[in-house]
Design brief:
about 300 residues; alpha/beta; four-stranded mixed beta sheet; 13 helices
Length: about 300
C-alpha cells in the first residue's frame, strides 16, 4: 500500500510544476523556471514487447568486489542512440538482479573508443541524474603483443588484443606472435582462439594473413579454417571462373608458405606454381610445402 507521504512528496510537483526550479536553487543546482509543462502518464510499463539484447552478460564474483554483473558490448562506430540503450541495460539489470552492473565496450578504432568512454548524462545541464560512462577496451589502451611467450601466457587476452588492433599496420607481427604461441597448444584449445581471431579481423587483409599463418605454423588441415584456405583461395579471376580463381589463390598460398619457411625458390618454381590451373595438383603442392626440405621438393617425383 502506497503511503500518503509517498504521494505527497511527488504529487506536489504535479500541482505546481514550477516548484522544481525553486527547490533546485535550495539544493545549489539552480534550474531555470520552466516555460512549458506537460504532465505525462506515470505508467512506464511497456505494453508491446521490446527486444533489447546486450551482446554478452556475465555474473562475476571476486573476493574484493563481491558479486556483480558485467555487460559487454562490441561497438563498431559511434552511434547517438547507444548511450541511452546502455543506460537502459545497466538500470534494467540493476533493478532485475539487484547487483552492481558494469559495462565494458570493446572497439577496434580510436575514434569510436574515445567516443564510447565519454560520460553521457540523461539529465539537463548541471543535473546529471543518470550518467553512463563505460569502461572501454580498444587500440588506445590494449597492449600490442608481439612476443610469442607473452601471447602464450594468456591466449585469450592476446586474442582480444589482436582483435582490437586489427587495423594496426603492425597487425602482421601481432598475428605471427599469436600463431607461434599456439604451436604447442592442444587443438581443442587452439580452435576457438583461431576462430575468434579470424572473425575479429573482419574483412580486412589481415584475415587472409591469419589463415595462411595457421596453415604454416599449426598444420590444422582438418580444421574448418584450413578447409577455407584450401577451398577459397583468392578469387581474383572471377571473370575467368571459380576454378581459375581458386587456382590463383592456392598458388599464392604455396609461395607464401615457402617464404614463411625461409625456403628460397627460383623463378622457374614461381612460374610453374602460378601457371598451374589444376586445383588438385595445387592442393598436393600446398600440402608438401609444409614439410618440403627445398622448394623443388613440392613437385614430388615429377619435379
Amino acid at each position: 500500500m502506497v503511503k500518503s507521504s509517498h504521494e505527497a512528496m511527488h504529487r506536489i510537483f504535479q500541482h505546481d510544476p514550477g516548484l522544481f526550479s525553486r527547490v533546485s536553487r535550495v539544493l545549489g543546482i539552480p534550474i531555470a523556471a520552466p516555460v512549458k509543462v506537460a504532465v505525462l502518464p506515470t505508467d512506464l510499463t511497456e505494453t508491446n514487447p521490446v527486444e533489447r539484447r546486450v551482446d554478452t552478460l556475465l555474473r562475476l564474483e571476486t573476493a574484493e568486489q563481491g558479486a556483480f554483473l558485467l555487460a559487454v558490448e562490441a561497438q563498431g562506430r559511434p552511434a547517438s542512440d547507444k548511450p541511452a540503450s546502455w543506460a537502459y541495460y545497466v538500470s534494467f539489470l540493476w533493478s532485475k538482479y539487484r547487483l552492481p552492473t558494469a559495462l565494458l565496450v570493446v572497439c577496434q578504432d580510436r575514434g569510436t573508443a574515445h567516443w564510447a568512454q565519454r560520460p553521457v548524462s540523461s539529465g539537463p545541464p548541471g543535473l546529471p541524474t543518470l550518467t553512463v560512462q563505460p569502461v572501454v577496451a580498444g587500440p588506445h589502451n590494449m597492449p600490442v603483443i608481439t612476443d610469442p611467450e607473452e601471447a602464450r601466457a594468456d591466449l585469450a587476452l592476446a586474442t582480444l588484443a589482436a582483435i582490437t588492433h586489427a587495423a594496426n599496420p603492425d597487425i602482421g607481427t601481432v598475428l605471427r606472435a599469436l600463431s607461434t604461441a599456439l604451436k604447442d597448444v592442444p587443438e581443442d584449445e587452439a580452435d576457438p582462439i583461431i576462430e575468434f581471431t579470424a572473425q575479429g579481423m573482419g574483412k580486412r587483409p589481415a584475415k587472409d594473413l591469419w589463415r595462411k599463418l595457421v596453415a604454416v605454423d599449426l598444420s590444422f588441415y582438418k580444421s574448418y579454417l584450413s578447409e577455407e584456405i584450401r577451398d577459397e583461395g583468392r578469387v581474383q579471376g572471377r571473370a575467368q571462373g571459380r576454378d581459375e580463381g581458386r587456382a590463383e589463390g592456392r598458388a599464392e598460398d604455396i609461395l607464401f608458405v615457402l617464404e614463411q619457411r625461409g625456403l628460397d625458390f627460383s623463378d622457374d618454381v614461381r612460374t610453374r606454381v602460378t601457371d598451374c590451373i589444376d586445383p588438385e595438383t595445387l592442393r598436393q603442392w600446398l600440402a608438401r610445402a609444409l614439410t618440403a626440405a627445398t622448394a623443388e621438393d613440392i613437385f614430388g617425383e615429377e619435379g
